[in-house]
């Protein structure tokens, strides 16, 4: 089947850098397209051609109405609408209303990002779980800034575990704050992107915005605050329980993490996995699960995330861990040794409940 759609305006935006947007439509819907003058010819199975035609007509209407698709926005929308036949391009764009976050105007670029923002507005405790690049931290900081500017809270608390990502950095010079600041840099980056640097410095100096490692949270009660626990997969169950019980009156808390990037020592269970199991079904708590379709970084990041997921599905069951005999506890049962005095034990991959 063939169909023709007139593209009178916005051809460059529709095709994208190196035609990545039009290739996304072709690959996602198994159709072939060809631009002849200002008309895009679509060829393929009737259902797929009809779907592509509907997406392009929505695009035409939105452009005529004056909607501007910023760099990468259309690509993010197309990833969603080509995978989910229940979602139209118009509905996705209109439901993802722009919001004012300090000096930034942002709009959610996927269904899950929209659910995430709505969950933060409705609930006092939200868990955002998913791969890197899905906007978990950035959007959480944006919502915190919005709440502060609108005087819904009086301060923002940003915290994360000071865990090294598979490295051993050894002794770090400087004061205690200077030692932990490198671990908290992503949170600072998001802050400076939302607000003018001078304003951020003043808010940090007055402790209206506090950026601290998770160990600094013990013993506190955080009233009238917007609290963000980032990289929560690297917290222990004890740390997670401690942070969750810091929440005071008129406070919101957002907990973010990627369970595929746990940097805890072998044998330590992630506090994020523990919290998902313990708190599932508790009233007032919302879980939002992100996936590779929500990645808003370079398109290559989405493919990398998907490749790792496929690899882990293949290799997850029956993987082998090599441990020193001295590291094996009695609970591990029998272990077979090799010639190097090491032991190999079989483990099963841990599955994460869907939010």
Global Rg: 24 Å
Helix content: 25-40%
Structural class computed from helices and strand pairing: alpha/beta
Strand content: 15-25%
Mean pLDDT: 78
Distance between the terminal alpha carbons, to the nearest Å? Answer: 40 Å
- Supply the number of helical segments: 12
How many strand units?
A: 14
Which strand order do you get reading across the main beta sheet? 8-7-9-10-6-11
Structural account:
Helices cover 39% and strands 19% of the residues. The protein has 355 residues and is α/β, with parallel strands linked by helices. It has a 6-stranded parallel β-sheet with strand order 8-7-9-10-6-11, with helices on both faces. Strand 9 (225-229), helix 10 (237-244) and strand 10 form a beta-alpha-beta unit. The radius of gyration is 24 Å and the shape is globular. The relative contact order is 0.11.
């Amino acid at each position: 089947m063939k169909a023709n759609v007139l593209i009178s305006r916005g051809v460059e935006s529709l095709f994208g850098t190196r035609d990545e947007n039009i290739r996304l439509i072709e690959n996602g819907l198994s159709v072939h397209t060809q631009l002849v003058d200002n008309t895009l010819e679509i060829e393929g199975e009737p259902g797929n051609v009809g779907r592509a035609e509907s997406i392009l007509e929505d695009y035409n209407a939105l452009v005529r109405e004056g909607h501007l698709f910023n760099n990468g926005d259309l690509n993010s929308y197309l990833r969603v609408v080509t995978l989910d036949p229940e979602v139209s391009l118009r509905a996705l764009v209109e439901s993802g209303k722009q919001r004012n976050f300090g000096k930034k105007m942002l709009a959610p670029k996927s269904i899950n990002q929209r659910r995430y923002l709505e969950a933060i507005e409705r609930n006092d405790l939200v868990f955002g779980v998913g791969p890197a690049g899905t906007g978990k931290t950035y959007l959480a900081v944006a919502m915190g800034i919005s709440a502060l500017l609108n005087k819904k809270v009086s301060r923002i608390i940003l915290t994360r575990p000071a865990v090294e990502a598979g490295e051993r950095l050894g002794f770090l010079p400087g004061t205690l704050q200077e030692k932990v600041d490198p671990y908290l840099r992503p949170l600072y980056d998001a802050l400076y992107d939302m607000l003018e640097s001078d304003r951020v410095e003043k808010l940090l100096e007055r402790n209206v915005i506090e950026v601290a490692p998770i160990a600094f949270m013990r013993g506190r009660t955080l009233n009238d605050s917007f609290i963000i626990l980032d990289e929560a997969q690297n917290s222990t169950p004890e740390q997670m329980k401690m942070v969750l019980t810091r929440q005071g009156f008129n406070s919101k808390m957002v907990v973010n993490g990627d369970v595929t990037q746990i940097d805890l020592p072998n044998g330590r269970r992630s506090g994020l996995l523990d919290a998902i199991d313990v708190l599932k079904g508790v009233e007032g708590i919302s879980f939002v699960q992100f996936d590779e379709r929500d990645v808003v970084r370079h398109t290559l990041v989405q493919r990398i995330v998907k490749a790792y997921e496929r690899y882990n599905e293949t290799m997850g069951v029956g993987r082998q861990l090599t441990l020193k005999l001295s590291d094996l506890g009695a609970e591990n049962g029998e272990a077979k040794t090799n010639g190097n005095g090491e032991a190999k034990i079989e483990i099963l991959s841990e599955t994460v409940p869907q939010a």
